[in-house]
Design a protein that fits this description.
Oligomer: single chain
Largest sheet: 5 strands, mixed
Shape: globular
Number of helices: 6
Strand content: 5-15%
Strand order of the largest sheet: 2-1-3-5-4
Number of strands: 5
Radius of gyration: 15 Å
Structural class: alpha/beta
Distance between the termini: 48 Å
Length: 122
């Protein structure tokens, strides 16, 4: 399977996204591989938003917090929220609703959405 997959475009995509985010900007994200691709190729550290599986696991373990508690804690001090993992984004309607209704989109393509967490909508 690996022989058939071509990952050469990955490097350029993550490097360009890192450039857009500024490399040292505080970023929260829902991205592939818990942000490792963005960190490695984009030189951009990202605090990862939990996947739906991560959230379900916490609930099963009895240590789940409310969405509002998680969101408030995770966005504190962050400048942007970046989404590149759209299937996961669709599995979290509470997150999707919160971001679209509260924060402006700085930039959006078919590959990513960058929300501006510093300038909430009125």
């Amino acid at each position: 399977d690996l022989v058939r997959d071509d990952f050469r475009d990955e490097t350029q995509f993550w490097a360009e996204l890192g450039d857009k985010l500024g490399h040292t900007t505080p970023v929260l994200g829902l991205t592939q591989d818990y942000g490792q691709r963005l960190s490695y190729w984009g030189w951009q550290r990202v605090d990862e938003w939990p996947t739906s599986g991560d959230r379900n696991l916490r609930e099963l373990a009895g240590v789940a917090k409310s969405f509002d508690e998680i969101f408030a804690a995770r966005v504190s001090g962050q400048q942007y929220f970046v989404v590149t993992q759209f299937k996961q984004f669709d599995k979290q309607p509470d997150l999707k609703e919160k971001l679209f209704s509260t924060y402006p989109i700085l930039e959006q393509t078919s590959d990513y959405i960058i929300f501006d967490l510093q300038n909430p909508l009125e």
